[in-house]
Every structure is written in structure tokens, then in C-alpha cells.
Write a structure and sequence with these properties.
CATH class of one domain: Alpha Beta
Order of helices and strands: EHEEEEHEHEHE
Radius of gyration: 16 Å
Bound molecules: pyrazine-2-carboxylic acid, zinc ion
CATH architecture of one domain: 3-Layer(aba) Sandwich
Number of helices: 4
Structural class: alpha/beta
Largest sheet: 6 strands, parallel
Helix content: 10-25%
Length: 217
């Protein structure tokens, strides 16, 4: 008993200009050239054509967002600070709502829904399900409304938003499959740790999409 394609939702995580070298993004992740985006779009299209529901997450920050180092005088990109007892990595300003760098690089018409996250200036939101303050997005409702039981995830970045979204999908009771070859991470060690943690959680890790054998997942 594997994935039933009609009950499978694909979550394409944060394929946005600012995370890519292709668009010379503010927080470009290594290995995100035009060929990478093409491969992600191809997989997304194929899964949609096979009958999966397809969703995207979109990092969508206000200019005064807590995660931007520029909003913390004296701090530098990638510093880690304490915000009300939570660990906050400080990033270059990225995915500012309405800007070019925040656009999703996959044909938007492919998506059954696009779930925005990170709009609250006071909380970061790596997960597509909820922010660091525990405020839920519409993701779980959207999946339930479509009777989704399993989720296939890939995108950017493996060690942050993909990891957090996969973990929450698992904790919300979905069967979860992560496609490593269609994802890229910010750091080598953090990416390796994220993949190990996902595996330990019972998330299925696969290298690439084998569409004909999807129901064996
Ligand atoms: C992400 C850092 C900051 C991600 C988003 O999409 O993984 N990383 N905001
Ligand atoms: Zn962000």
C-alpha cells in the first residue's frame, strides 16, 4: 500500500528568485541555476498531469521582518540571535512581498494553491504549515479539503523550509516522501543533518522521481 496518486499532494517549496543563482537572488542557494529550475518545473508538471494536486509555498516577508539582519543594528548575515527565547538565524533581506525576488519561478497556473508564509514581521516561518509563533497557514485545511493523505516534497532549502514543512506534514499525519535530487540546501552539514532527521522521523527519502512507480512509494 503506497501512495494513491489521487490522494497525493505535491508541495513545491519556495522556488523563488531570491533563493536562486539563476536570478542572482539575495539568498541564492548553491546549485540553483536555470537547469535546476527546469528540472523542478518538469517534475511538477509531470506529477500534475498524472493526477496529483500540486501546491507551492511562497516565502513572503514585510520589509521589517525579524529574520533580516538589516533590522538588527550591528548584526551580520547568518548571525544567530535569540528572539524571545527562540533561535533566529539572520538572513539577507529576501522574498520581500511584491518584489521580483519573491516571484515563484514555476508556471503559477500549475498550482492548485499557493500558500504564503512569513508575513508577520515578528515571526519567521520556515514551515508551510505554521510560523514560529504557532500561527497556522491554510496548508493543512487545503490538503484535508482535497482528501490528501500523502505528500511529496521538494524545493528550497532542504535544511530550512523543506525540512520544516516535511516535519510538520509528518506530524499532521501525512505519509511524506522527500525528493533529494530536486532539492538544494544552504549548508552541507545542516543539509546532511536535516536528511538524517527526516529519515529518522519515518519520512521516505528518494533521489529522483520515478513516476511509473509512484504507487510503490
Ligand atoms: C528559507 C531562509 C529564510 C527557505 C526561507 O526557503 O529555506 N530559508 N527564509
Ligand atoms: Zn525567509
Amino acid at each position: 500500500m503506497g501512495l494513491d496518486i489521487k490522494k497525493t499532494g505535491v508541495i513545491v517549496v519556495d522556488i523563488q528568485g531570491d533563493f536562486t543563482t539563476w536570478k542572482r537572488g539575495a539568498l541564492a542557494v548553491e546549485g540553483t541555476d536555470g537547469a535546476y529550475i527546469k528540472s523542478v518545473e518538469h517534475a511538477t508538471r509531470t506529477l500534475k498531469e498524472k493526477g496529483c494536486k500540486v501546491y507551492a509555498t511562497q516565502d513572503w516577508h514585510p520589509p521589517d521582518h525579524v529574520s533580516f539582519y538589516t533590522n538588527h543594528p550591528g548584526k551580520n548575515p547568518f548571525d544567530v540571535i535569540d528572539v524571545n527565547g527562540r533561535k533566529q538565524v539572520l538572513w539577507p533581506p529576501h522574498c520581500v512581498m511584491g518584489t521580483y525576488g519573491a516571484e515563484i519561478l514555476i508556471e503559477n497556473k500549475l498550482f492548485d494553491a499557493i500558500v504564503k508564509k512569513g508575513q508577520d514581521p515578528h515571526f519567521d516561518s520556515y514551515s508551510g504549515f505554521q510560523d514560529d509563533g504557532g500561527k497556522k497557514t491554510e496548508m493543512d485545511e487545503v490538503l484535508r479539503a482535497s482528501h490528501i493523505e500523502g505528500v511529496i516534497l521538494f524545493g528550497l532549502a532542504t535544511d530550512y523550509c523543506v525540512f520544516a514543512t516535511a516535519k510538520d506534514a509528518k506530524e499532521n499525519g501525512y505519509r511524506v516522501v522527500f525528493i533529494e535530487g530536486l532539492s538544494r540546501g544552504v549548508g552541507k552539514d545542516t543539509t546532511r543533518n536535516a536528511i538524517k532527521e527526516m529519515k529518522d522521523m519515518g519520512i521516505r527519502i528518494i533521489e529522483g522521481l520515478d513516476i511509473e512507480n509512484i504507487n510503490a512509494l
